Amino acid sequence: ALLEAELRQALEAGQFVLHYQPKVDVRSGRIVGAEALVRWQHPGRGLVEPGRFIPLAEEIGLILALTEQVLQAACSSLRRWADAGRRPLPLSVNLPASSLADRRLPGRLGELMRAHGLAPSSLVLELTETMLMHDVDAAIEVLGELKARGFGLSLDDFGTGYSSLSHLKRLPMSELKIDRAFVTDVAQGGPDAALAVAIITLGKELGLQVVAEGVETPAQSAFLKARGCTLQQGYLFSRPLPREDFERLLDEGC
Ligand code: G
Ligand code: G
Ligand code: MN
Ligand code: NA
């Protein structure tokens, strides 16, 4: 109950910040995008990880208000980077399961981008397969509208949820993220390597960008690259960083 009251207060006080993890094209070594990950800058506890408050925010009905702040902060950063003359870097944000239930989502996101003078293509919406499978037909309709407006659509944590392949082909995604559960042992050549290769092939055949997440070692990175997965994210390249540190990384020419 204490945490609940604190969470409400935190929304009012603006205690949520975004950290940014680069997405790298390993062929060039350059940063080609970033994922925004929310953290709670708690006055007493320090930086709180999302795993410790997102589920609670969903439970007590605060997730949409929190998501609104995340989207505002993401757009502020995109605006800031454009104003500073940086090359365009699409920013990915994680949407909660409940967000697709709102049919007004595409219109609201369109309005948000307009208000910041941004093209919808500068924002990539990350959705998990589990949230899409809950009501596939409704999801396809909302996703279709988001895609028509130009937003990027990424299927996050792929392979760990309950999507069927017959549904996958109907979802108008632009990107598929290989869950780090498959990446961890990918260089060992066992079943996870087979699954990762199958996911890469599947994604490419469906015309999607394929991104590996949770890449921590050169061996993992090299294996994935050799199999055609050149977009990678993970501690090997960088942890999620506060905005200033992320900007410094960009300034170093990565
Ligand atoms: O950053 P970290 O690895 O601690 O994130 C843990 C989980 O929290 C991940 O599953 C991630 O998708 C989720 N998450 C991070 N930021 C956000 C956010 O802004 N909104 C939502 N809904 N989930 C997020
Ligand atoms: O569910 P989602 O894919 O959005 O979760 C992203 C989470 O993964 C973030 O919390 C981020 O901190 C974490 N993460 C990012 N890179 C790595 C990595 O290389 N290894 C591990 N273990 N976690 C990572
Ligand atoms: Mn994600
Ligand atoms: Na993921």
TrEMBL record:
It comes from the Bacteria. Residues 1-254 form the EAL domain. This is Bifunctional diguanylate cyclase/phosphodiesterase. It comes from Rubrivivax benzoatilyticus.
